[in-house]
């Protein structure tokens, strides 16, 4: 026999199929309600979704840790400044000499892999660089972690951005063969490994969380919001992550970071940092990689309370610590 029939009674089988279909439909509807604020950065959402995402993002950005609101007009000005700065930095990156880019890629990666904080890390999250996004290259960093000598003592998690209306997840990989090509030739981990096993880690919200969210969104908005940001849904790793290697469009030496407007890293890091507090794990070291043209003078990057600051910056000129206390996290 090729398989065991768990439903010898045809009536029970039909009932099970009906319930499964209903649950699947509820999950998809819950996704539309719960995750609309974080559209895929490479797929243009509809005007309705785009408007909803902007409104919710601004609502989140308007609240600081104490829950004090920020003037919406001030936020509008900040978002406009961010758009303007992104345009300038993208232009500078496109005009960057290819030879200089390659030299800076090598210099930055050499600094990372030779650093004490990288060597001391037992598990880390690192992005897989994309030429289409003009990001600082990370192939040597990825290779170093996945090498036979480092493989025994390090875990590597890399980001996967789901379809429109999904959050970013971090999935563990053990080989570059675990990566698949997605839109814009961006490499991301498949949801299952070569043996068909689900990868450790960034799980979507559970079925029950989705159902609760769908059924109780209007009646219990605060509880539904808690399900949205449940830290356990961000990362299911059994051990804490020591190091995050983070991309971005612009940085300054005070730790400010300008992303690509999707908000994926800010939201993921916010939830993960909350998880570390609840589990009493040590805080990870957040290190950004930057070409020389991406470094802005201090105070030149407009920020909101929702933006997560970096602990350190690596540029071709060297390692720039932002907090000495943060460096001791990986020692």
UniProtKB/TrEMBL annotation:
Leader sequence segment: none
SUPFAM superfamilies xrefs: NagB/RpiA/CoA transferase-like
GO cellular component terms, A-Z: mitochondrion
InterPro entries membership: FTHF_cligase, FTHF_cligase-like_sf, NagB/RpiA_transferase-like
GO biological process: folic acid-containing compound biosynthetic process; tetrahydrofolate interconversion
An example molecular function term from Gene Ontology annotations: 5-formyltetrahydrofolate cyclo-ligase activity
PANTHER family documented for this protein: 5-FORMYLTETRAHYDROFOLATE CYCLO-LIGASE, MITOCHONDRIAL-LIKE ISOFORM X1, ATPASE INHIBITOR/5-FORMYLTETRAHYDROFOLATE CYCLO-LIGASE
Name recorded for this polypeptide: 5-formyltetrahydrofolate cyclo-ligase
Source taxonomy: Eukaryota, Viridiplantae, Streptophyta, Embryophyta, Tracheophyta
């Amino acid at each position: 026999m090729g398989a065991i029939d768990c439903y010898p009674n045809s009536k029970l089988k039909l009932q099970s199929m009906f319930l499964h279909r209903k649950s699947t439909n509820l999950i998809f509807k819950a996704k539309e309600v719960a995750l609309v604020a974080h559209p895929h950065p490479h797929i243009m959402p509809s005007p309705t979704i785009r408007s909803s995402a902007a409104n919710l993002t601004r609502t989140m950005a308007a609240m600081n840790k104490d829950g004090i609101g920020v003037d919406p007009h001030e936020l509008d000005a900040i978002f406009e400044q961010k758009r303007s700065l992104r345009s300038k930095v993208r232009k500078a990156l496109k005009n960057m000499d290819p030879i200089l880019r390659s030299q800076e890629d090598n210099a930055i990666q050499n600094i990372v892999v030779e650093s004490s904080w990288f060597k001391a890390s037992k598990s880390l999250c690192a992005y897989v660089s994309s030429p289409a996004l003009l990001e600082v290259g990370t192939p040597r960093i990825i290779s170093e972690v996945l090498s036979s000598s480092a493989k025994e003592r390090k875990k590597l998690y890399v980001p996967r951005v789901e379809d429109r209306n999904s959050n970013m997840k971090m999935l563990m990989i053990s080989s570059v063969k675990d990566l698949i090509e997605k839109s814009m030739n961006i490499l991301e981990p498949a949801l299952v490994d070569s043996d068909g096993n689900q990868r450790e880690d960034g799980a979507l919200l559970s079925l029950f969380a989705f159902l609760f969210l769908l059924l109780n969104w209007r009646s219990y908005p605060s509880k539904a919001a808690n399900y949205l940001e449940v830290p356990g849904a961000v990362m299911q790793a059994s051990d804490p992550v020591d190091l995050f290697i983070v991309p971005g469009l612009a940085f300054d030496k005070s730790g400010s970071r300008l992303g690509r407007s999707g908000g994926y890293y800010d939201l993921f890091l916010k939830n993960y940092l909350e998880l570390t507090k609840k589990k009493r794990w040590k805080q990870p070291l957040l290190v950004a990689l930057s070409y020389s043209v991406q470094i802005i003078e201090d105070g030149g990057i407009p920020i909101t309370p929702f933006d997560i600051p970096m602990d350190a910056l690596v540029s071709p000129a060297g390692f720039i610590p932002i907090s000495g206390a943060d460096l001791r996290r990986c020692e």
